[in-house]
Amino acid sequence: MRTQPRYVDVERCTGCGDCAQVCPVSLPDRFEQGLGTHKAIHKHYAQAIPGAYAIEKLDRSPCTSACPGMVNAHAYVALTAIGRYKEALEVIYRTLPFPGVISRICPHPCESACRRKDVDEPIAICDLKRFIADTVDLSDLHVTTGPKRNQKVAVVGGGPAGLSAAYFLARHGFSVTIFEAEEEVGGMLRYVIPDYVLPKDVLDREVGFLKRLGVEMRCRTALGRDVTIDGLLAQGYAAVFVATGAPKGIPLQIPGEDANGVMQGVDFLRRVQQGTLDEVPTKVAVVGGDDTAFYAARSARRLGAEEVIVIYSRDLDQLPARPENYREAVEEGVRVLTRVSPVEVVEESGQARGLRCVRTTLKEADTSGRRRPVPEAGSDIFIEAPLIIAALGRTPDTAGLSEAESLPTERFATLQVDPVTFETPRPGVFAGGEVCSGPWVAIGAVAAGREAAESIRRYVDGEDLRADRESLEPLRRHFMPIPENETPRPRATMPRRDPSERITNFREVNLGLSEMQARSEAKKCLNCMGCCECLACVEACRAEAVRHDERPQEVRLEVGSVILAPGFRSVDPSRYDTYAYADHPNVITALEFERILSATGPFQGHLVRPSDHKEPRRIAWLQCVGSRDMHHCDNGYCSAVCCMYAVKEAVIAREHSPYPLETTIFFMDMRTYGKDFERYYEKAKASGVRFVRSRIHSVEPVAGSDDLRLRYVDGDGRMREEDYDLVVLSTGLESSEETVRLAERLGISLSPGRFAQTRIFAPVSTSRPGVYVCGALSGPKDIPQSVMEASAAACAATEALCDARYSRTRTVELPAPRDVTGEKPRIGVFICNCGINIGGVVRVPEVVAYAKELPGVVYAQENLFSCSQDTQEKMAEIIGREKLNRVVIAACSPRTHEPLFQETLSAAGLNPYLLEMANIRNLDAWVHGDDPDGATRKAKDMVRMAVAKALLLEPLEQTSLPVSKKALVVGGGVAGMTAALSLARHGYPVVLVEKSKQLGGQANRLHKTAAGDDVADALNELVGQVTNHPLVTVHLETEIQSVEGFVGNFHTCLACGETRHEVDHGVTIIATGAKEWKPDIYGYGAHRAVMTHLELDEHLKSNDQVVATARTIVFIQCVGSRDSTRAYCSKVCCTHTMVSALECRKRNPDADIYVLYRDIRTYGEREALYREARAQGIVFIRYSPGSPPRVTPGPERVAVTFREPILERDLALEADVVCLASAIVSHHNNALAQLFKVPMDSDGWFLEAHQKLRPVDFATEGVFVCGLAHYPKPLEESIAQAKAAASRAMTVLASRAIRVGGVVSVVDASRCSGCMGCVNVCPFGAIGFDEEMRAARINPALCKGCGACAAVCPSEAIALKGFTNQQLYAVIKTALA
Amino acid sequence: MDTKPFEPKIVAFMCNWCTYGAADLAGVSRLPYPQNIRPIRVMCSATISPHHILRAFQSGADGVFIGGCHIGDCHYIKGNYMTIKRVAFMEDLLNWFGLEGRLHLEWISSAEAQKFVDVIRRFTEKIRALGPNPIPALLKTPKAIWNGADDEGHCANVA
To answer: Which ranges carry the F420-non-reducing hydrogenase iron-sulfur subunit D domain (chain B) (predicted)?
Structure first.
C-alpha cells in the first residue's frame, strides 16, 4: 500500500485552524462540490473525523521546479496576491539573497514553465519578485541564522556564487571572508551588467544585507597574487570556496583582431562602468548574440554611437540573450544582422576600420544542440566600424589556479568539481559558479553557492556530504486542474522609459509594477501545487503539528482478507450537450444541490442558485443523467438511488423555502422500491411535488436572464417547453478510472457496468478468493444496503480468520483506581490555553487565580495544550502528587476530548468519571473573540459551574457480565440458514429454529436467479452445509414459546409439538421471512391460466407444457403492491418478471409476451435484463393505477383488456398464461415481536434501530433482523443482510464480557412510588417492575443512559449517574450565581 | 439605582448529540453570538425535567433554552417526543407564573451551527425585551406567597 502524506501530525493537531487563517492559498472545496473554497491547509469538512487539518499538496509547482535556484515562486506569488510582501521576501531569502538583482537580469525559466500560459500568458513572476524586493525594506527582513560557530570560511571571488555562498555560510553560523580581486564585490553583476538594467544601488543594498549578517569583504585581493589556497587554509580557514567566475572574453580568432579599436565586450562594459571610457565612434559593430553583446551595443548607443550593429551568425530564435534585452536594444536603435559571421578585421595602419563578414547557412546541429553556421562562399559584406566589440562568450581564468593551487580543470578551462557537492579534488576546497559551469545564468551561480555552503557545513561537521541530496524526486505533472471557466486576463507589464530618453543616459529602463498591478497579477496564479510551501502554517501552529517533509510511504501488511470499499464517483454531466451543465452555472448536479441544502454548506443551508444567489422559485430535477443510457456514457445500468434522492431533495427544498416553491421531477420510471420509499413518494406527490414522465430534449439558457428553458417530450409524445430558475441533474453513480485500475491491480473481475462481479449466493465476495467487497463498488446502491454489505463483508472476511481473533491485540495495563470514598473533595483545575486559541481571548491566568478560590479546589494551573502527550503525563503526575480526587479541565469540547482526559485520570489511578470539562474554547473563546472581558467572565462562570458539579461527582463503576456464546436463529429460509452458517463457521454454536417441516423457505419455490442460475442447486448445497455443520442444531416444526433475559444472556424456551427445549443464548437473529400474497383480483383462482409468479416458477421447474404451448403470455405487475392496502413496492417482482419472461421466450420463441406495468423497477445492473427483454421483443405496456387491466376468464383462454396509453384506446388480448406479480406480504408475527420486545411497522415488517445506519440491529440489544422479515428483497440482498446480522451478532458473541454501568440510571427503591412511568418511557426496555419490592428496577446492561426515566420520575427516585438532579441543580445554581 | 443595561441570564440545556454539537461547530466556524447563555450539557433533551426548568427560574434565570434533536433523529429513539410534550406543558405552567415566553425549545442538529447562533440571538433579544425574571424579586418581598422558601427560593421538601 502506498499512503499519501497528510503533512499534518494527526496526533498533535488540535484542529484550532490557526494554520488556515494564515494560509495564502485558496482552492476549490471538493467537499462542497467546488461551490466554495478552502485553504490549502484545511479540514475536509467542519465535522470531519479525525478533526485534524490536512494539506492539499500535489507535485511541485512547475515555476519552482524550473528555477535553477529552486526559488519558491509559487509561495511568493501567493503571498503577494494577498499583500503579505515581507513574508514573500522571506520566502525568497530562503534560497536567494539577491532578489532585486536577479529579478532584473534573470531569463526566468519559471515563467516559461508557468501553466497560466494555457489560459492566457505566464504570470509575470520575475517582475513580481522585483516588486517584492523593491517594496520591502531590507532592514525589516528577518532571516534565521544558526548558532554562531568559531570556524571561519574563505570565499574567493565576490560574484553571485561567492556572495551566495557567503550568505548561506553566514546563516550556518560561520565567520565568512570574501576575497575579491576588484575594487568592489559583485563580479559580473557590477562590472558587466549596465546601470540601466541593474542600478548599482540595488546591488549595494543587497550586498549590504550580507554585511549586516557579518560577512567580511576584502577587495583588491586576488587569488594567486595576494592570497593562495594553501595560505588561507594555513591561516585557519576551515574551508575555501573558489568562485572566481568566467571573466575572460573569448577572442574572435580572425585576422586583424589585435588592431586598435577591437575590444572584448566584458572589458568595454567594465571600463564604461568604471567611468574610464565615455566616448565611442559613431559606428560600432558588436560580434555575438549573448546578453554581453546587447549590453555593449546599448551602452555604445548611450555613449553616442549612432549606428550600432550586432552581428550574429545564427537566427534570432537561437539568440542566447534575454528577449527583453534584445527587444530593448532594438527599441534603442540597435540593428541586428543575423546569419552573418566576421572573417577579418579590416585595419588601416593598426586601427580597425571595419569587419569583413560572410553570410552563413545553418547546417545540422552541433554538440550544443544548435544548428551550426557555415559560411556561404562569395557572400562577402563589409561593415564599417572603427570600434569592434567582441562578445562571443566568456571563459574562466583558471590557467594559474590549476597549476599553483593544484585544482584540475576540464574542457573550456572550468574547474573540476562534484556536480552535487561542489567539492574539488582537494579536501576542504570547494568551487562553484561560472568558474565551474562556464557562463550561465546568475541564479545558477546563486544555487551553486548555496549548495556549496551546505557541503562546507557538512564537511566541517564531519557529516556525509551526499546524504539526501541526489534523490531529487522525479518531475511529475500532477497539478491542480485549471478551472474550466478561467477567463483570460492580460499580463501585467512594467512601465518603461521612452527609448528616445533612454539613449541619453544610464538610468534604469524598467520602472517596476505598481502595487495594484502586482496584486492582481499574482491573483492569477493557478496554484498548481495546491499548497505553496510558504510555511506560514508551520509558523502559526503552536502545537508544532505541521510536517511539510512527509513523503508517501510504502506499507506492507500481512493480512488474511481484503475488503474493498472505494465507493463510487458521481457521473460528470459535462459530457452531455443536452444538459448545458458545463456552460450554465444554474444547471447543477444533485450532489451540488445537497451541499446547497446543507446547513454546513456553501450558503449555510440558504436555498439560492449559484449564478446570482437568487432564491429559486422553480426547480426541475432531471432523472437518469448518466444512467440507463448506452448512447452517451455506456452506463446502461440504473443507478438505483437517484429517484429516491431526487424526491427527497424536492421535499426538503420545499421545506427550506420560505415561499411556495415549484418542484418538478422529470423521470422515465419512478423507482422508489426501498423500505418506506413508496410512501415517501406518495407523500411527496400529495405535498405538491410534480412528477412528469418524460424524455428531455434540451436545456438552454433563456436570453436576458439566468433562467433555463427545458424542452421535453411528455408521456403522450408531445414536445413541451417550461422555464426554470434552477435545474438539478440527478447524476448517476459509476466506478472511477482509479477504482477500475485498483480492480485490475488486484485481479478481480468487473461486470459490464464496471462494478465488481459478485454472485447471488456470495454477494460480498469478488472473483478472487479472500478479496471481499461492499458498497457501490459492487453496483450502485443506497446507504442501508451499503451498510448491510459492510457488515456482511466483515463477516465473510473473518470467516477463515476466526482462529486469529484476539491473537494480536494488546491490553492497556492501568493502575487500580484509588478508593476515594469518604475523602473530602480535592479538586484540581487545569485551564487550557490551547496555544492561543483560548489564551488569545480569555485571560487564562486570571481564570486560574479565580479557580483557586472556588470551594473544593486545591490546585489550579494553566496548560499550553492540555491534550499533548507531555501535558497528559504532567497532569497524571500532579493528580498523584496533589492527591486530587476530582479533576476539572477547562479546554475544548467533551464531545471530542472527554475520552482522552478520562484516560489521563485512569492512568493516574483515578476513576475516569471523576472528571468534569468546561468547554471554554468552542463555546467561549472561539465565539466571543472580540470581547476578551466578556469571554473571561464567561470562562470563570463555566469553570465555576464545572467545579460545582465536580464537588458532587462520584466514581462510577463498570462491572462485567458473562456472555452466553451461542446464537438463536429464528427462521430456516435462505436468510436464517446463511446467518446460522456464518456464525457456526466463526466457531459459535447456533440453534436454528424453523416452524415448517423443511429448511429453505420461499427459495424452495424459486426457479432461477437474476443471474440465470438454478436456485434449487444452490439451495440444496446451503441446506446440506447447514445440516452437516457440527455447530448448527436445527429444530424443525418448532416455535418460540417464551423468552427471558437480555443481551448476552437470553433464556428461550422452544416448543416442538409437546416437546420443550431450553436454550441459553447471547444473541437472537430474526429471519422469519414473508410470503406471497394470494391475489383476490384479476380472476386469480377462477381460471388455471391465471397464476402467481411462484406458480409460474413451478411450471417452469417442472418443465410442463403450460409455457411451451402458450401463444400469448401476459405479465401483470404490482398485483397487491403499491396500492392503498399495501403502500409499498415488493421490490423483486420487476426483476422476477424479466427473468421469467426471458425464460418463456427461450422455451417458446413464438409466443407473444406482454408485460403490463406501472414503473419498471429493475434497479442497478438488473436493468440489463429489462434491456434484454425489450430486445427479445417482449412488449411493455404501462397502465395507470386508475385504470388497471381487466382479466376475464373464458372457456379456454382468458381475455386481458388494458388501456394503451399512447393510443388512448382499450385493447384486448386472449392469453394462455397470465402471470401476476403478486406482492410479498408479512407473516405479521406479532407474538414473536412481543417475545423479543422488538417493533414492527404497520405493514408487518420488523423495524430496525435506524434505517440507514443500523439496518440489521434492533433498538433492543442483542436482537437482529435479516431477510424478508425486514422487507421484501431479492436473494442476494437477503444473503448479504443475513451475513450482516451474523456480523453484528458476533460483536456481542466475540466480546469477552459485557461491560455494564457507567452513565446509567439507578432507582432508589425506597423513594419509588411504583407508578411505572419510567417503565413506559424507556425506549430500550431496560426497566422492569419488581413486584416484590413494588419498585422499578433498571437493567444496567440495557440502559443507554438517556435519563428519560429520571426526568419522568415524580419522586426523584431515579438518578442518571453523572447527570443526577443534585449535580444539575448545583450547576444551574452556580450558573446564575 | 443600577444603571447598567439589563443583560439577561439564560440557562441553555443542550443535548450532547445535536445542539451541543452545533454549538461546538459554531465555535469551529467562529460564528459569534451573545454571551448571555450559560451552557449545560445533557445526554438527551428528555433528561430535562420540570424540576430543572423550575430550578433555573427560581434561581434567577431570565430565560431557559432547550436544544434537542430533530424529530426522528433522537439518539435514544424517542426522547425528543417526550421533550416536546413536556415543554408544551411547562409553557402553560410558566404562563401561569407570569413567565410567558421565557422557555424556548428548538431542534438543532449538530450540523446546524448557523441555526444555533440565530436561535440564541433571537431568544436573547426576546428575553432582553421581556426584562428580568420577576420571580426572585417576588421571593425577596416579606409578603411572598412562597412561604417556606429558603433564601434561594427553594422550598423545603414537604414529603
So the answer is: 10-131
CB of B26 less than 8 A from some CB of A? yes
Print burial letters for A1004-1020: b (CB count within 10 Å at least 16), e (below 16).
Answer: bbbbbbbeeeebbebbe
* Confidence check: pLDDT of B159 > 70: no
Distance from CA of A1369 to the nearest CA of B (A): 7
Lowest mean pLDDT among A131-140, A359-368, A1140-1149, A1346-1355: A359-368
pLDDT over 80 (residue B157) = no
* CATH for the A58-143+480-529 domain, from 3.40.630, 1.10.8, 1.10.1060, 1.10.20: 1.10.1060
Instruction: Report DSSP letters for A63-125, one per residue.
Output: HHHH-TT---HHHHHHHHHTT-HHHHHHHHHTT-S-HHHHHHH---HHHHH-GGGGTSS---H
Q: Do residues B98 and A585 make contact, with C-beta atoms less than 8 angstroms apart?
A: no
CATH architecture assignment, domain A1302-1375: 2-Layer Sandwich (3.30)
Query: Hey, which residues 96-135 in chain B have their CB within 8 Å of chain A?
Result: 109-115
Cβ atoms of residues A1069 and A1047 within 8 Å: no
The CATH code of the domain that includes B129 is: 3.40.50
What ipTM was predicted for this assembly?
0.92
Q: Phi first, then psi: give them for residue A942, nearest 5 degrees.
A: -70, -35
Tell me how far apart the alpha carbons of residues A178 and A185 are, in angstroms, rounded to a whole number: 9
A931 and B110 within 8 Å at the Cβ level: the answer is no
**The amino acid at A709:** R
pLDDT at A1329: 93
User: Under CATH, which number does the domain A827-954 receive?
Assistant: 3.40.50
State the DSSP H helix or E strand holding residue A827, giving kind and residue range, or none if neither.
Answer: strand A827-832
Closest residue to A47, CB basis, from B39, B44, B110: B110
Residue of A921, A930, A942 with shortest CB distance to B32: A930
CA-wise closest residue to A247 among A69, A424, A401: A401
Q: Where in chain A is the domain with CATH 3.50.50.60?
A: 152-240+416-461, 248-395, 569-733, 967-1073+1227-1298, 1076-1225
Distance of CA A1023 to the CA centre of its chain: 46
CB pair distance less than 8 Å for A599 and B78: no
**Residues pairing with B51 in the sheet:** none
Secondary structure letter of residue A921 according to DSSP: I
Question: B92 and chain A: CB distance < 8 Å anywhere?
Answer: no
Contact A1364, A952 (CB under 8 A): yes
- pLDDT at position B148 over 50: no
Residue-by-residue DSSP string for B30-75:
T----TTEEEEEES-GGG--HHHHHHHHHTT-SEEEEEEPPTT--T
Cβ–Cβ of A1348/B29 closer than 8 Å?
no
Q: What is the DSSP letter of A313?
A: S
Query: Residue A472's pLDDT is what?
Result: 55
The maximal CA–CA distance of chain B, rounded, in angstroms, is: 51
Render pLDDT for A1040-1089 as a digit per residue (tens, 0 to 9): 999 999 999 999 999 999 999 999 999 999 999 999 999 999 999 999 99
Ranges for all domains in chain A classified under CATH 3.40.50: 827-954
Q: Which residues from A are below 8 Å from B43, CB to CB?
A: 1303, 1345-1347, 1360, 1363
**Residue B79 falls inside a structural domain:** yes
- The answer to whether residue B154 is domain-embedded is no
- On average, the pLDDT of chain A sits at 93
Contact across the interface for A942 and B48, Cβ inside 8 Å = no
Query: Do the chains contact at A1348 and B47, CB–CB below 8 Å?
Result: yes
Architecture in CATH for domain A152-240+416-461: 3-Layer(bba) Sandwich (3.50)
Residues in B touching A599 (Cβ below 8 Å): 109, 111-115
Q: Please state whether the peptide bond connecting residue A1149 to the residue before it is cis, i.e. omega within 30 degrees of 0.
A: no
